[in-house]
Amino acid sequence: MKNFTCFLLLSLFLFDQSLYAQKGIDFTVGGGAYFTPIAGPMTRSAYFQGEMEYHQTPRLSFSAGVITSNFTYPGFNGSTLLPNGTIIPGTYDRLNGTELQSNFLAKYALLKKQSFALRAGAGIGLVSYSRQVLITLGREFPAVVEVSNTDIGFPIQLEAEQKVYKNILLGLRAGTFVFPDYPFIGNHTGLVVKYRLK
Description:
mainly beta, Porin, 66% strand, elongated
């Protein structure tokens, strides 16, 4: 809920600024491959992204967006010996997790042509992540519980975009989310489709 509220407020602000300044604004959807080490070893999944981007100048823009991903990661295989001597068969071989980001970025066009741009961006955001954890210690039988947390961090992004038809742009985007105490989560790369409203 915090992520959605943050995204909504930032989006409304950017949309208001674009109407007032009569400058371009992009509505973006995208998706692709998502890699996160939050559950242990790097886990691969897919993600979906929505974003609104306000162009202050031809090179400088500001965006508010959300990224969501669901993923699975290995649990355990084979039998497990609990502290009380009970042997549990390996039925929890896959566990589930989710990540949800809401980001605000400032972007700058490193390369700008008439119909092509290469943009780099950095900013601040919230990431909410949850994952299933297998609890065995002190239990006769294992239990799967869900743990979750929300933290502040710093998204980084690189994007190449090409105008393909009037106000339609296609792009390739790569990004990550930096924590001060945990280097990189939410690594992603994928395709985006933009509609530019002027």
